[in-house]
Specification:
heterodimer, A: alpha/beta, 6-stranded mixed β-sheet, 4-stranded antiparallel β-sheet, globular, B: alpha+beta, 6-stranded mixed beta barrel, 23 strands, 13% strand, elongated
Chain lengths: 233, 1119
């Protein structure tokens, strides 16, 4: 049994007579501890997959099983619990709480987690031990994203979902962030699913899922994923 | 396209739009309503006044007005209408209601016309109509009888009995509280119109004037009053000379009357003195006679007494003797065995026999003895005679010798003749003597012969008669004579004694009769004495009375002379409608309405402005991106501003229309009907004050537009590209509280966020707090007004005035009787008599009227609880204090320690110092002790009423005074309290409106703020959801802030409302009522509580939108 199983998942938006198929009968699997990259052009449906995976949205059809947990027909409450305990999410635009320091932002997550990591430790991991007590507005984009990652990771989730984490960052900072993610995966055994439209980043992943127009184009497996430092783009 | 977007915008954020509209409705409606009400009220009354031709100026004069005065006034050019009127205040008795003072007015009138509302107008001289009002207890067909106390009413009014034929309404008497009567210092109870023929006086009581062009101005406005005042002053100047006319005329008349009076006085005085003297003399005579009569009686008594004593002694004697006699008789009877009478008869018979025998013996003896003795006597006598004669003879013979001798020698023939006659005489005499001697000798010789032949039984013992007599003596046990005498004595004695006894009885009876007579005589005398004493008493009384009346009359004359000197100046009082009670009350009411109308809506206005600002700001913030796009496209700043201004403007228009309608229709009607409880108002004339509507609309629109413009302009400062990007979040900083580590570390996460948020978004903080505070404040205001007003009745009638009934006296002649009837043993029952009158007070040249209450200082604390107006200390009335009520002091600028001039009930002036100012909510009072009053004015106190605190209540008091004289009415405070409650409740309706509106406002504000809160932080909320915060946690994250803000705002609102209350209370004060500014703790709690409840309700409703926030949508990246 795979860690994540997507089976014939479809997401259809109905607006009056118009039907929009965001996802059309998608199926894939992800193993535990894998670093997965979801590639695709804008509007391909990547975010939708991530949203459904992350319990923020529900599929119209299909089955989604995460760690033997079928969340296909889960209600709001169940999804909430699912998000709380199983998922860590990293957004493209960080979405930190502006009024809390970096440390507090992470504590926001550790507060509700069952078996969290130490907030300070996590910030150390992401290299922000000296910036713990700064507010997001006092941090650069990269630093903010790292805080966001720390927040997501601190919960000790089974699954780390990242929606274009480096989209708003420059090359160097981006690479830094990706390094963190890779470390999480390799050193802490987290399953990471990352959306990106930068094909070059595919090399760092264990599995690459290409999505286009709501369907899966192909799924490639990297035998030897590269280190982020080695990737040039 | 542009405008289309605006409409879509409205549709999409309908909630926001509607909340904006509702704010406008409330604000505009309220403003409109209150402004209109005052205008409508004024217009309605104006029309009424004009229709009924209410006077502009009323003239009064201390002397009245005569025809010449009227003519002079008519000549003044700016006076259009002159109407002189006679009026008279009289007293009538109303069954079960006591005495009422009513005013009689002339029926025929061109000015101050009245309106017939039932029945018909009088057609005969003895018919009347009355003005409907609070105290009207009459029905058509009732008869009233008028009278005056100190004078004959028929001297001023022709008829004394009137039949009521109709009811009228008069613009002159609109207020249900009529003015003070001219008779006594009490309020008028009613007004009657009667045909003018009834008024006998030649002079007019008052003159009503219509001022030319005064109708141009609206009633109750300052312009009107200023105009009329000016004309009044002109009138004063023009008529200055005329004003003295009547006084001069009257002065002469009065002077003459006084002189007549003085003459009459002297006459009567002399008469009286004469009469008294005569009476005095009569009495003295009578007294003398009485004394004499008494002396006689006393004498007679003494005599009678002596006699009585004597009689008693006799009786004693007789009784003793009788006893003895009876004993003896008993002895005899027992001895003899026969009755005493039998025995006595026997003895009598024996005795008589004895006596007969004795007589025989005696005769024998007598005859013998007598004859014997007689003869012897005779012989003795004869012998004597013989001897005498012999002697004589001798003498004569010697004389003869002498004569013969003489003869022998005498030669004178005369002498010889004399001697011869002498000789003859002597010889005769000698012859006589010889004869006599011879005769006598003869008799003697005869007698001696007889004597030899008589037997002499002078021994008596051997005669047979004697023997018989001796026998009888033996039979009688000794001596019959003795026995007989004894028996006789006994029997007779008894008889005598018995007779004596009868006599004594008779004598006793006589004495008794005599006593009776004397008693009767004494009684009569006593009656007469008493009559005399009565007469004496009457005389004395008469004397005193006479003296008193002399004194009184003298005083009166003196007083009259003095008063003549002190006659008031003949200055006319020129009064505008400010002195017209109804007008002034109404004017004040309208002014109040206006004041309320200006201030209250202002508060709403501010709150509404705040809401608008927040709403628009939020909208603009949301529309940021849109604005950026428009700018990027090339639209001008102005166009963009215009777009949102349109949004706001539409909201304003809709809100204003609805608000104006609501305000216009609901408020005036409600408030007008409420005022109707106090005034007899004409029909409501709904007018549409376009002016006000425009003001309301324009002001609100202006507000909205300027706010919107301001907010949009701010946004437009940023470049289009900036706009299109999400707003840079505001810098966050550490909060002060963080430094206090031990508190900070204890706070939960959400609390920390809340605190940071509060400090970070200061404008949001302040707006929310102000908004909520405003609403809580309004609630406090509303409740506070209610508290202040509703409690005054309770405090006034239970706290300040500790009594519950009043017995009104017609006079104090039998006040002792009444007091004893009302007496009760209960501890908390008190009865305190008082003298109460409307007294004039002069302070700083101003003149005012106040109700003066005079009562015993000690008793005052039983029925009054007076508190110092500033310190709230309990005040006690003592003999140095003069306590004045707060409102009065305020109105006249008085404080404790000031001096004022007070008039007594008789008009005497004296200076007094105010010792304290007391709290009093109704009317104006001055309290002074009896001793103080007497000391000041040297007048006696005549009680006019008795205040009663009676645990059993009003019915008990009524029962007790049943049938007692000189009581004019008994009033019960319970009914007063009801009356005042009605009046006071009239304001409750306004308050209710305020409270409800405030509540609505509070609700809308909170709703708005909550919405804003949510919409601003959608992204944040979505993130939290993504992180996995449960719904409850999300709520608490957000709502903590709101609750805290509401908490702070609520607390801030409490003092805010208190200040507002003070402000409002000072505005809605009425002339005679002082509203204490009072807020119950409960009200604070309620206000706060309501705000809190609304907060909770709003938050409850906010959960749904929160839940609905889609993570996906909200987190949509700006791609």
């Amino acid at each position: 049994m795979s860690f994540i199983e997507f089976k014939n998942v479809s997401k259809i938006y109905k607006m009056g007579e118009v039907e929009i198929k965001a996802l059309d009968d998608i199926s894939f699997e992800v193993e535990k501890g894998e670093f997965v990259c979801v590639l695709g052009a804008s509007g391909a449906g990547k975010t939708t997959i991530l949203n459904i995976l992350g319990g923020m949205d529900s599929a119209t059809n299909g089955t989604i099983i995460v760690d033997d947990n079928d969340i296909s027909n889960a209600d709001d409450k169940q999804l909430c619990e699912y998000r709380r305990h199983e998922i860590g999410f990293v957004f493209q635009f960080y979405n930190l709480v502006q009024n809390l320091t970096a440390l507090e932002n992470v504590e926001l997550a550790t507060q509700i987690a069952e078996d969290p990591m130490s907030s300070k430790e996590v910030l150390k991991i992401v290299g922000l031990q000296d910036r713990m007590h700064n507010f997001p507005s006092q941090l650069s984009g990269g630093e903010q994203q790292r805080v966001a990652i720390a927040r997501a990771v601190a919960k000790n989730p089974k699954l780390l979902l990242c929606d274009e984490p480096t989209g708003a960052l420059d090359y160097v900072t981006g690479k830094q962030v990706l390094k963190v993610l890779q470390d999480m995966c390799n050193n802490h055994g987290m399953t990471v699913v990352m959306i990106t439209h930068n094909a070059a980043l595919a090399d760092m992943a264990d599995k690459v899922i290409r999505v286009a127009s709501g369907t899966i184009r192909d799924i490639k497996i990297n035998e030897n994923p590269k280190n982020v430092e080695d990737i040039e783009y | 396209m542009f405008t289309k977007d605006t409409f879509r915008l409205i549709k999409r954020s309908l909630n926001r739009f509607l909340s904006l509209v509702s704010i406008v409705i409330i604000g505009v409606g309220f403003m409109m309503g209150l402004l209109s009400t005052s205008i409508i009220m004024r217009n309605s009354v104006d029309k009424y006044n004009i229709d009924s031709n209410l006077h502009d100026i009323q003239l009064f004069s201390p002397y009245g007005f005569c025809d010449e005065d009227i003519e002079a006034i008519k000549k003044v050019d700016f006076i259009d209408g002159v109407f002189a009127s006679k009026m008279q205040d009289v007293i009538i008795d109303v069954e079960d209601n006591g005495e009422k003072i009513v005013r009689l007015r002339e029926l025929e009138s061109d000015v101050n016309k009245f309106e017939l509302i039932e029945g018909r107008l009088p057609m005969k001289a003895d018919e009347a109509v009355y003005v409907v009002g609070e105290f009207a207890v009459f029905e058509i067909g009732d008869k009233i009888t008028i009278y005056l106390e100190d004078s004959d009413v028929t001297e001023v009014i022709k008829n004394t009995e009137f039949t009521i034929v109709g009811k009228v309404k008069s613009s002159e008497y609109m207020s249900l509280f009529l003015s003070t009567s001219l008779l006594k210092n009490l309020d008028l109870d009613n007004v009657f119109y009667i045909p003018k023929v009834n008024f006998i006086s030649d002079y007019y009581t008052t003159v009503y004037l219509s001022v030319r062009d005064a109708q141009k101005f609206q009633t109750t406005t300052d312009e009107y009053f200023n105009y009329v005042d000016k004309k009044g002053e002109d009138l004063e100047i023009i008529t200055l000379d005329q004003q003295d006319f009547l006084k001069e005329k009257l002065l002469v008349e009065i002077e003459n009357e006084i002189i007549e009076g003085e003459e009459l006085f002297q006459e009567r005085k002399a008469e009286g003195e004469k009469e008294l003297e005569a009476a005095k003399m009569e009495l003295e005579d009578a007294n003398l006679m009485l004394i004499l009569a008494q002396m006689e009686i006393d004498n007679n008594r003494m005599v009678l007494k002596a006699n009585e004593r004597k009689l008693q002694e006799n009786e004693k004697l007789v009784d003793a003797n009788l006893k003895q006699v009876n004993e003896s008789i008993n002895e005899i009877e027992t001895a003899q065995g026969k009755s005493i009478d039998e025995v006595y008869n026997e003895i009598t018979a024996l005795y008589q026999t004895y006596k007969a025998l004795e007589r025989v013996g005696e005769i024998e003896n007598e005859t013998g003895d007598n004859i014997y003795s007689e003869i012897i006597n005779q012989n003795n006598n004869l012998k004597l005679i013989i001897n005498e004669n012999k002697v004589l003879k001798q003498e004569y013979e010697s004389q003869l010798t002498v004569v013969n001798n003489k003869l022998a020698t005498e030669t004178n023939p005369e002498e010889i003749a004399k001697l011869n006659s002498q000789k003859e005489n002597l010889q005769n005499r000698i012859n006589t003597c010889n004869i006599t001697i011879e005769t006598c000798q003869n008799i003697v010789d005869i007698n001696e012969t007889i004597l030899e032949n008589i037997d002499d039984y002078s021994d008596g013992e051997t005669s047979p008669t004697k023997i018989a007599m001796d026998e009888i003596d033996e039979m009688a046990g000794g001596s019959i004579e003795v026995t007989y005498i004894q028996m006789t004595q006994l029997v007779q004695g008894k008889k005598d004694l018995e007779a004596a006894k009868l006599e004594i009885e008779e004598g006793k009876k006589q004495i008794a009769d005599g006593k009776e007579q004397l008693d009767a005589a004494q009684k009569e005398l006593d009656i007469n004495k008493k009559e005399y004493l009565d007469g004496l008493e009457k005389y004395r009384e008469g004397l005193i009375k006479f003296n008193n009346e002399i004194e009184k009359a003298e005083n009166e004359l003196k007083l009259a002379r003095q008063q003549l000197k002190e006659l008031p100046d003949a200055q006319w009082m020129i009064l505008n409608r400010d002195y017209h009670y109804s007008s002034i009350m109404f004017k004040n009411t309208v002014k109040q309405m206006q004041s309320i109308g200006r201030i209250l809506p202002l508060l709403f206005y501010l709150v509404a402005a705040l809401i608008c600002m927040t709403t628009m700001k939020r909208l603009i913030d949301e529309q940021r991106g849109q604005i950026g796009i428009f700018r990027a496209l090339g639209f001008y700043k102005g166009q963009i501003i215009g777009k949102y201004v349109l949004y706001a403007f539409l909201a304003t228009i809709i809100g204003s229309l609805a608000g104006i309608t609501f305000g216009q229709l609901v408020f005036p009607v409600v408030i007008y009907n409420t005022w109707r409880l106090m005034y007899d108002l004409p029909e409501l004339l709904i007018s549409y004050p376009i002016e006000n509507m425009i003001i309301c609309f324009v002001s609100f629109s202006g507000l909205m537009i300027s706010v919107t413009t301001g907010v949009v302009s701010r946004s437009l400062k940023e470049t289009p590209s900036q706009l299109m990007r999400p707003k840079a979040p505001k810098k966050a900083k550490k909060v002060f509280l963080e430094k206090i580590k031990f508190i900070w570390n204890k706070l939960s996460f959400t609390s920390k966020i809340t605190v940071r948020n509060l400090f970070r978004y200061k404008s949001r903080f302040f707006m929310t707090v102000i908004g909520v505070a405003g609403c809580t404040g309004l609630l406090v205001l509303g409740f506070g007004i209610k508290d202040s007003i509703s409690n005054i009745v309770n405090i006034q009638y239970n706290e300040f005035w500790n009594y519950n009934s009043i017995v009104h006296l017609e006079n104090d002649h039998n006040v002792e009787e009444i007091l004893s009837v009302l007496e009760s043993d209960l501890d908390n029952d008190f009865i305190v008599p008082m003298m109460s009158y409307n007294g004039k007070v002069y302070c700083d040249r101003k003149e005012a009227t106040i109700t003066v209450e005079v009562l015993d200082a000690r008793e005052s604390s039983n029925i009054f609880n007076l508190y110092d107006s500033k310190t709230n200390e309990r005040l006690r009335l003592n003999n140095n204090s003069v306590i004045v009520s707060e409102k009065f002091a305020k109105n006249n600028g008085l404080k404790a320690g000031d001096f004022i001039i007070l008039e007594s009930i008789n008009g005497i002036k004296a200076e007094v110092q105010i010792s304290d100012i007391c709290k009093m909510y109704f009317q104006h009072y001055l309290y002074i002790s009896e001793a103080n009053y007497k000391h000041l004015f040297e007048e006696n106190i005549h009680y006019t009423k008795i205040a009663i605190a009676n645990a059993k209540g009003y019915e008990d008091v009524l029962e007790r005074v049943e049938g007692v004289k000189n009581i004019s009415a008994v009033t019960d405070f319970a009914s007063f309290v009801d009356q005042f409650n009605t009046i006071v409740e009239s304001l409750n309706i306004i308050i209710g409106a305020v409270i409800i509106t405030s509540g609505a406002l509070a609700f809308v504000v909170l709703l708005n703020l909550t919405q804003v809160n949510i919409s601003e932080r959608t992204r944040e909320i979505a993130t939290l959801k993504v992180i996995g915060l449960r719904d409850n946690e999300v709520y608490s994250y957000l709502f903590k802030e709101i609750i805290l803000l509401s908490f702070i705002g609520g607390l801030a609102g409490l003092p805010l409302g208190t200040v507002a209350l003070k402000l409002v209370m000072s505005i809605i004060e009425m002339e005679m009522i002082l509203f204490p500014t009072q807020i119950k703790w409960l009200s604070y709690v309620l206000s706060y509580g309501i705000t809190f409840i609304f907060t909770c309700i709003v938050l409850l409703f906010a959960r749904k939108p929160l839940r609905k926030i889609q993570m996906v949508e909200s987190l949509k990246s700006v791609e």
